[in-house]
Design a protein that fits this description.
homotrimer; alpha/beta; eight-stranded mixed beta sheet; 14 helices; disordered C terminus
């Protein structure tokens, strides 16, 4: 029941170190929109959670888009007259403009220059550039590297292929009691950039791992996808069922030392928006709620007007606002174990709200029930009451079948967990009853055909800092399709 | 018509002194949830206003509660070895924990200690403690008194009875033209505590006295009840007709020198909430509007979800926030004549709003009517207009049958009295007409069977600082049942 | 399409000088509610825009009012014993209380005094006074003038007539594609007062001139009317069709150096209210939005409850708040060319919003359309986007058929012009389609019977600082009746 409570039984420090270790494992891989980089990344994640990998052929039509060619790269460099590499993809995969077409030529510096990208304000950093939809090639290097280039001829080599192939994405579906879904989406297409978005990948992976095997109200869908085209691909292929997504979060830049930022869904007052705002207000860290805007990450697609899903975006520092953004300085030092773990905890707390945010009915709605004779009140009159009793009074007073627990938490100024615990206690005392609601179709609790990926439980028992769920119910775990 | 105007014809200073004198008369009585203390208190009030007293037997079921045993006390003390009383109920009735079961025993100080309550931070004050629903006994004393107790044996005596009997409460019903009611409720169960709640009792009594015999739009019901169980009792016995309560106020702690606090009803934007906020904004005293919360006084019961009545709570200092609260320092010096009278004036102003808050229709809704030829405007053009003309323009502009006068007062930033006077004047000029509304059933103006309590008019003519209503219409006065 | 863009092709400085010149031409005329002053004023305006003049006979009933007698004045003075004029209407037409009945008498100063008005706080200024609805006479003079008056007899002469005649007002109707109208109203009854309201007259005249001959969505109705009685007259004579007014502005005091003030319509959140607030927030000048109140200028009548039209009032300094108000100090120096032109520009920008504020539908509502392949996006990934692309994303995201462009401008924090341009571009790209809406009946684009006042085009080509509309479509221009 209490996801947050169960989460808090684990060791935050240890969890942070595990998260950072996973990020470190993924860091060297040269990811892109398509290609083997994202394939290797998803395979690594699949060793931890039940992940299905989907491949969609180049040229497939997706709404207004088509699946691009698949890009793969083996090597790339700029070498001087002496054959010595002055820019070397093997040193840092940011050196090649992502999606560069193959090139192998000798050319003077003057001809090469238009293909070079640097950041003069941060002369030691390498920028990150892409050219997905315009066939081009280029190198990214530190400004100091460029200044050191002497006139003369250079050998320029990008050993890449851009050919018909596939777009690949990963999906982890954890079935709950309802077919209604919570979506967790993160982009997996950036090469060696840590905050953007290995932080999102690792937090999402651990969140899935934490939920795996639990008895859940909602079904959960985790998407590990290339940015923009991946979200479009998934939505185009799941247009009919996308409406099952009741709540969603895009996770990005959740590992740096900045305070939290939550960008609201297009709806602006969806339950996910309120849940995150509530949780962040109790996170103990600085937190800012941002209005929706149509520029950003994949919430752009989920919140396009045809879908208008209740999907917000959880960040620490906001993309584009910190100098390390899209540069080589967004490295493993830039993300911190404790911040990764703190972000994971916020996610757990948000899901705790979503899982438990129900409406109840006070079964003694006329006047207060006598809490004293149920040992739910203080015994000596004349003294003040504590927060626990206060939470009980709030739940009783507002449980008219209309107010959900989040309404009550917001109005009372008490944390959701206190309200939720009070509701549980009052239910046990027979004073409160859950109001049945249409969750969009409950799933049969014991579905007949089940493919439980083996990885899940194995990984959980061997690697996780999380406590096991008390009743690990494998039947609630299912892959999609 | 103008309750506030009529109120202001009286002498505020004299009224304050009368209120304080009544509080002083009631102060020595040892009230409790039940018993002779509250019986004597109600009898005193009944000598001033038409009060019906109701007795409900111990054990009667009331929703989730039952009427408790009746508690009465004659004497109580702790005496030293020399027979000298070191703690004496006759000195101050707070010395006995309210609802203490009888005890008469000798015991060493060590055995007595768990039954003693003090306030170390205020060593001269005696705390107020109760144990209504758990049979126990105890003494409250000043911390200095306790420190002076020497080791040794003490004679402990509480000469009380806790037996089957009755719960008693008083009800003053003043019939108006409509069966819709305004509820004024105050708890009458506290012993020698002045602000909490002799202040409420006296202000309510004088308010009833002020209304008595007037031609009123609403019917008024004043409840003088033991806290919590009294409200529950009344609501359980009047469940069907409680819905007639359109507006209500709990009065408590209205005599101290603090600024006003009004706690809104659970509805949050009921007419009573808006009326009180409006009146307080013009009271000339500091005033704060508090959101509803389910802890507090009897608004807890009136605002329970099954009833959800529009009942707020008017206070000066909020219970629990001032150090004198529930101690012997909440005495007759702590409440002030002028503050009592000021609270009464606020109540009169609030009722003035409720009584006169009607919707009107501008009979010349197309363009402004020509006020000048009716002598309702200034004659020389080019000069600015005064507040009176401004009020007329506001009333004409917003009287479209939708806006009530309180809407107009709020939107114009003018006091309700100015708006109300403008409406009256415009009606007289034939420019405005009252919109008929369903007041929940008008009472026949001359009801057939009437029991007019004799006390009312007698008291009013002999004791009151209020001017008599111009046409004292005894037929509008009726007791309940 | 882009009224503001076209306006900005003109020279603001030149426009300001033209506006001020027109004000200077109108300044010496002694206007009043009725009479030749307003007749001459309207004739001057008619030489610039297609104006119809209406005359309504004295005694005509208009709702609660009747048309007053017509007032005309030729001369007025106070002369000393030596025959020398000490107060002379020929020097300043404010010297006579407007609507003074004729008088010719000799009287001692003591008898004269009650008929003299001064402003002691500004001893050099002459006040402006009227006595429209009470037959009286009086002189206004500077306080110093009055102090200089010696005891003795004076010849007092007001050579005026107050007789049955007509009330006159002017109306300029510019037909648009819809019968729905935008109303621009200004009072034309004040004598030599520049800000109040030659500023409004000149800005309205130039605004009409600017619109004249353009292909417009709305029809436009400009009213040049005596204050109060003029608005009442127009509304009484056009009661049935007044409902066509969808948006309206009263223009007054728009020439002084103060910041803008916009008083909202009675509705408070009408499209005109939002449009003006939006435009003012980008005006580069200080601007304050005021709530509606029923005192003021002719919005009083338009916003009377029977009409409740969406008409606000645009001002710079608010009447009554600046010391020059209704005095001789409100002269041609008090209004400034640049401020007049700035007010005109705000009006053009507001009309630009109204003309273009439509709802659109994103034709690719599922995910974003691929802007890149339409050259509507930046080509190199990893960099930030500019305001233009941002506007496109906002328009696409919110164009669900529900949000109008003003909604989008408000929510995005981008100026309406940027949003409007983005919508136009996206329409051209086939990504967006206009949502058809009921504009209250489109007019036939080429109406059969047309009386095109000759003045309009002639004036426009010879006098205006505005660029000509690209396709001057004379058929969209029509006079009323």
């Amino acid at each position: 029941m209490g996801l947050l409570k169960e989460f808090d039984q684990g060791q935050l420090t240890q969890t942070g170190q595990e998260l950072h270790r996973l990020a470190a494992d993924l860091y060297p891989i040269c990811r892109s929109l398509t290609g083997d980089g994202i394939r290797r990344t998803l395979t690594l994640i699949k060793s931890r959670i039940p992940l299905q990998m989907f491949e969609v052929s180049t040229g497939t039509a997706l709404f207004d888009w088509t699946v691009p060619k698949e890009w793969n790269i083996r090597d790339a460099y700029i070498a001087g007259a002496d054959g010595k590499r002055v820019v070397d993809f093997q040193q840092c995969n940011l050196h090649v403009m992502n999606y560069s077409v193959p090139v192998h030529a000798a050319m003077p510096l003057g001809e090469l220059r238009p293909h070079l990208f640097t950041i003069p304000e941060h002369p030691d950093w390498i920028p990150y550039r892409t050219s997905y939809y315009k066939e081009d090639w280029g190198f990214c290097l530190s400004h100091n590297q460029m200044l050191a280039l002497e006139d003369g001829d250079y050998e320029v080599c990008i050993d890449s292929t851009l050919e018909d192939g596939h777009l690949i994405y990963g999906e982890c579906y954890l079935g709950g009691r309802s077919l209604d879904e919570v979506l967790i989406s993160c982009h997996a297409c950036h090469p060696s950039l840590a905050n953007d978005n290995l932080s999102g990948l690792t937090v999402a992976t651990y969140l899935a791992q934490f939920l795996c095997g639990r008895d859940l109200r909602y079904s959960y869908r985790f998407l590990f996808i290339p940015g923009t085209i991946g979200a479009i691909t998934w939505l185009a292929r799941n247009r009919e069922t996308a409406g099952r997504i009741r709540h969603g979060l895009v996770l990005t830049c959740v590992g740096d030392e900045g305070g939290f930022h939550y960008k609201k869904s297009r709806r602006g007052n969806a339950e996910i928006d309120r849940a995150v705002a509530h949780v962040l207000s109790y996170s103990g860290e600085s937190a800012e709620i941002l209005e929706f805007s149509p520029y950003g990450y994949d919430e752009r697609q989920y919140c396009s007007p045809g879908f208008n899903l209740a999907v917000g975006c959880l960040m620490r520092s906001v993309w584009g606002t910190f100098p390390e953004y899209h540069t080589s300085a967004d490295n493993l030092d830039f993300i911190r174990p404790l911040q990764l773990a703190g972000s994971l905890r916020v996610c757990a707390a948000v899901l705790d709200v979503l899982e438990n945010n129900r409406r109840y009915r006070n079964l003694n709605p006329y006047c207060e029930p006598q809490l004293g004779r149920r040992n739910l009140y203080r015994s000596t009159g004349g003294e003040t009451i504590g927060a626990e009793i206060n939470a009980r009074l709030w739940v009783l007073n507002l449980s008219d079948g209309e107010h959900c627990l989040l309404d009550i938490a917001e109005r009372s100024g008490l944390p959701f967990s206190a309200i939720s615990e009070a509701a549980e206690l009052l239910c046990e005392s027979g004073l409160l009853a859950l109001v049945a609601e249409d969750d969009g179709g409950e799933q049969p609790r014991r579905p007949i055909a089940m493919k439980v990926p083996r990885t899940c439980h194995a990984e959980r028992s061997e690697a996780s800092a999380f406590p096991s769920p008390s009743k690990a119910d494998s039947s609630s775990l299912r892959s999609s399709e």
